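Lecture notes, unit on binding sites. The following record was shown on slide 14. It pairs a sequence with nicotinamide-adenine-dinucleotide.
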Amino acid sequence: MPTIALRGAVDIPQLGFGVFQVPPDDTIEVVLRALQAGYRHIDTAAAYGNEAQVGQAIRASGLSREDVFVTTKCFNDDHGYQQARNAFKDSLERLELNHVDLYLIHWPVPAHDRYVETWRAFIELRDEGLVRAIGVSNFQPAHLRRIIEETGETPAVNQVELHPYHQQPGLRREHEEREIVTEAWSPLAQGGVLEDPVLTTLAREHGKTAAQIVLRWHLQLGNVVFPKSVTPQRIEENIDVLDFHLSAREMEQIADLDRGERIGPDPDTFVRP
Ligand code: NAD
């Protein structure tokens, strides 16, 4: 599995496994299956309610801690310097780990205007060695600019909704200029792009599935992805994307599918809970 060096230092496997909406009771089994299939990067969050089970699965796998890259996230009601530090401690306790590899601000929640304070707590957690790399999620260019200008610290990644129907070209350019790695959440649009005729045709031509075509497209763009599935065959299918290549013309055909169409909330207004 290719890796990308975050801020030139911490290597993240480019394809991982996401556990949003994986019920806690199923998480140990599903994550174990993913680790057995070869995934070495798990994307969870305090808000997903399954951090404890992710930690249990990693221990049960027999893999060493250094071999599995773990991301978790600080949720919307935990913004603010002290709240974010407390939230991190709670996540670490649930995971039963002594550090996480990547810690993200889950949403900026601009209505509450506390994400800069949260970011200051993140910088400290990284400097204390409790987190190897720090980043953000669902940040718009204005939010990125603000944390960088007010703290001098650029996030290692921005994890945003990104799939063939919502390709975020402007934000991706902003990331490139600032050397921020783009992480694509809902890389398959939760399955919503898989019937697209352009993708099903490419799938047929390559002897792959539409999901594999989309994941390959992400990897060739340089995105980090972590598709979610609880189905054993799909878990294996989604990591089996390293043995073929999309041509420049095929990449363009997929670029042309962009409709700027979100399936998730608008980061400028989302405040839940
Ligand atoms: P996804 O695009 O990974 O789609 C998952 C769904 O697609 C599955 O439930 C299944 O219905 C279908 N699917 C998966 N593999 C398939 C295959 N091979 N063939 C056919 N159908 C298939 O969507 P997601 O779970 O929303 O996103 C992935 C991960 O991104 C999450 O688990 C989570 O870790 C992260 N995420 C982050 C945020 C955020 O705000 N930061 C938001 C949503 C998701």
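Take-home: The two ends are 36 Å apart (CA to CA).
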